[in-house]
Amino acid sequence: MFKKIVIFGLTILCATALAQISGIKTVGVGGDYPTLTAALTTAPNSWKNSTITGDVIFRLLDTIYPNETYPLVCTIPAGYTGGDWNLLIKPVSGNVAKLIGSNATAIFELTGIDRLTMDSLIIANLNLGTDTAGHAIRFINGASFNTVKNCELRAASKLVSSLAGGVIYFSTAESPSGPGNNNNLVDNCLITSSQTDRFPVYAITIRGTSPMYTRTNNNNTVQHCKIIDFSAIGVYFSAYDSNTTITENEFYSTVAQNTLQMIGIRITATSVCNTKITKNKFFDFRAAEACTCFMAIYMTMADPDKPPLVANNFISLDGNVTHPNTKIYGIRLLRQETTADTYKFYNNSIYIGGTPTSKSSYGFFCKPSASLQTKIDFRNNIIFNNRSGGTGKHYCIYDSLASTLSFYSDYNNLYVATPGSNGQYVAYRNGIDLATLTDWQTATARDSHSISLNPNYVSTTDLHINSTSSNVNNLAIPISYITTDIDGETRNAVTPDIGADEYTPGAACQEPITKSQMIYLQSTYPNPFHTHTTICYALTTGENVTLSIYDVSGKLIRNLVDQHQTAGNYAVTWNGKDNHGLKMPNGIYIRQLKIEKEIKHSQIILIK
Ligand SMILES: [Ca+2]
Ligand SMILES: [Ca+2]
After folding, report:
1. Which domains does the chain have, with CATH numbers?
2. 589 Cβ neighbours under 8 A, 6+ residues apart
3. What distance in angstroms lies between residue 524's CA and the mean position of ligand 2's atoms?
4. pLDDT tens-place string over residues 152-202
5. pLDDT the model gives residue 515
6. Cα(520) to centroid of ligand 2, in Å?
7. pTM of the shown model
8. Which of 22, 39, 258, 468 could be 33's S-S partner, Cβ–Cβ 3.0 to 4.6 Å?
9. Taking ligand 1, which is a single-atom ion, which protein residues have CB atoms under 5 Å away?
């Protein structure tokens, strides 16, 4: 456990050991320590001159701890020289222990401690003052390799928008100032308000200081959390951070007192680098007061040389519920510097809906400097902007970048239902509204492989693809490090799906295999088809399979499959193009499924 483990320290500890300490210490009425305050102030003194032979567990016997002194400071005792062990704070099995304070700096203050795990606790800071930024947990002075899991973390700070806000606060800016807080994990926690009428302005704030890396917060992870009822920003990167991963979290919120912006994740500084924002779900943003805008991800800046990866996220924003005047941005990027590396946006699924009275909405809003070459790679994303009406305009992509070279965009699905009507446009570029995908392709020479079709989400808040749809199936391009989807399912390595959900269309592809046949050519749908059709088949044994498309004269048009496949159900999409990428004319085509001993044929009709 505590800090700076050195091999030589073990020798010293052995030589001076007074007692063997490890194992379970009970905390609560009748326990080894009456309170956690006592445990955390008393026990470390005995650790200084002892040999710690294994992990120490503070086992919480009670469900409520009313006699604590907050903050509970977890720190390195003076004179402690090291040791390789963990400290666990957790209740007896089946309990959830409550640690609830009021107006404290924090409930837990992790000051330079290492390898502390907090499990199954309710940690709440009730801030009775209306302008107090108290935390549930704060990590300061080099607190590293700590874990907070299965906890409820609650704080409230009505109207406070100070940089020091946050239910969880990682900081090198607080006293005692020290090195970065690194390699910490927040896992499977609820991060929210401690009061029904006072919402924390920020759920998580990550705030480092110069110089980069040494006083930066590095390699921290927030995963599997529900981050709800914050009133301005879910995760706020204020400065000096590297390699933070925000993955598989849900961000949703109702807001009572806020005229600010509502933002899921915000990066504000050029000193924030290599952030990974993946597999998160943003939905049900609401504003009870006149919130100026909703943004799932907002980057006013990020490190120009190590910009973020944003991949496999569901972003569903519907501003119609309480405040129709709110602007909406799925992802908003404002960039004023030349970038050495590339901003990466891959396989995100975005839905924007609602009926505004005046304000505009944007799936991907990109406003870098016109003269500088901010590099953007925007591929395999779905943007369905279904917001309509009002005097505002509603875009999938809004791009004011003058360069055609530094913004690469392709293999996307950019869809509005009524291009050029109801305020809906596929894109905007450099002062011009572009109603259709073709207009955007012509104006920018981008998105040559992209489509503009209803992705057929399961619902406006569940952006999985409806299993009967094949519109975005198998039409993306493989990206080497996007190997799974938002569900953790393996991506098709050759023809992945556009958007965050990798899927196999159709209950039709799930028909049971009859053992009487080696292969089973199932339905093809839609048929007739317009742009894409899905061919379903099943194998009862492993086979070398070829699936090909021929025209009626018997000429080979397209090889879709030519490989060994194991028994199971398969779905393959044909986009109506030949092996050279040319669109085929209307007509009848033949699909041929072939294994060593068997050939199946049937017709497909293409209508454009
Ligand atoms: Ca999936
Ligand atoms: Ca697929």
Report:
1. 317-327+335-503 (no CATH), 508-606 (2.60.40.4070)
2. 549, 550, 551, 552, 557, 603, 604, 605, 606
3. 15
4. 999 987 655 567 788 999 999 888 778 999 999 999 999 998 887 778 889
5. 47
6. 19
7. 0.81
8. 39
9. 485, 487, 489, 501-502
